Structures are given as C-alpha cells and as structure tokens.
Amino acid sequence: MANNRTYTMIKPDAVSAGNSGAIIKMIEEAGFRIVSMKMTQMTKEIAGKFYEVHKERPFYGELCDYMSSGPIIPMILEKDNAVEDFRKLIGATNPAEAAEGTIRKLFAKSIEANAIHGSDSDENAAIEGAFFFSAVDQY
Ligand code: RTP
Ligand code: MG
C-alpha cells in the first residue's frame, strides 16, 4: 500500500508525566515520518467539537474535561498502512487490555487518561489532521 497518513495526539497525562520524548521516539522507531507537530491546549469547547462523534456516549463530558486539562502534542504521521499500523503501536483503549510493548501498555494511566490518540480510518485521519493543522502545515 502507498504511503498514507494518520492523526495522533499525545494526551495530557503523558505530556504532564514527561513521557512525550519517549513516545515520539517509539513513533519514529516504528517507521512513521512526522509530517506536522505542535504543542497546544484545547478549551473544553474545542475538545467538545473534536469528540462530537462521541457526544451520546456516557464518558463524553469527562473526556472533554480531561482532554482540555493540559497541553497536548498533535501530530500528522506518514507511513504505508499508517492508520492500522499506528493503532497496533498504541494498543487497546484500556491499558489493562493493551498488548505488551504498546504505547498505552507502557504509558497509559487509565481507560480515559490513555496517553495517546490514533485515528480509526483514513477518512477520520484527514478530518482530524485538518482540525489541528492548516493546509500549509501538511506538506
Ligand atoms: P482514541 O480515539 O483516543 O484513539 O481512542 P480509541 O479509538 O481507542 O477509543 P474511543 O472509543 O474512540 O474513545 C475515545 C477516548 O475516550 C476515552 N474513553 N473513556 N471512560 C471510558 O469508558 C472511556 N472509554 C473511552 C479514552 O480516552 C479514549 O481514548
Ligand atoms: Mg477513537
């Protein structure tokens, strides 16, 4: 498959714990090229927009509070089979169920504060990347 892209963000728990560097190293060692990267913080309203697809789920309010509680590091990544391979690298949503050696197994604190995000489809990767980065950043 040709090179394609996914969207990720290192979540507030991993940034505040000082694990960003170790996580970025794992991402690069797994063969992903960092296309775009920055540090920023979402307001609760912006987190609400980003997670609008989850608005009917019981954890939506808490998730938006949590994701706006501190700095995050959004990135666009490139690799062949990027979306699927990145979901493998990060592991299951719940760190208790994440495979050994995955980013969430190593760094996640809980099912909510689970260190990192990974897009679940090519279509969502494009939507999520464009939410955080303008066209000129996505070189
Ligand atoms: P992500 O979108 O962050 O890559 O995570 P995911 O696909 O593995 O999980 P998803 O179902 O999309 O959920 C989005 C995020 O919501 C939080 N969550 N909390 N309290 C709960 O039961 C619960 N379930 C999910 C997590 O931060 C999850 O990553
Ligand atoms: Mg998801």
Task: Outline the structure in words.
With about 140 residues, the protein is of the alpha+beta class. The protein has seven helices and four strands, in the order βααβααβααβα. The protein has a four-stranded antiparallel sheet with strand order 2-3-1-4, sandwiched between helices. It is globular. The model has no long low-confidence stretch (mean pLDDT about 95). The site of ribavirin triphosphate (RTP) has 9 residues, from strand 4.
Q: How is this structure best summarized?
A:
By secondary structure, the protein is α+β, with helices and mostly antiparallel strands.
Topology diagram in text:
Elements: E1 3-10, H1 12-16, H2 20-29, E2 33-37, H3 44-50, H4 60-67, E3 73-80, H5 82-90, H6 103-107, E4 116-118, H7 122-132
Antiparallel strand pairs: 1-3, 1-4, 2-3
Helix pairs in contact: 3-4
The site of ribavirin triphosphate has 9 residues, from strand 4.
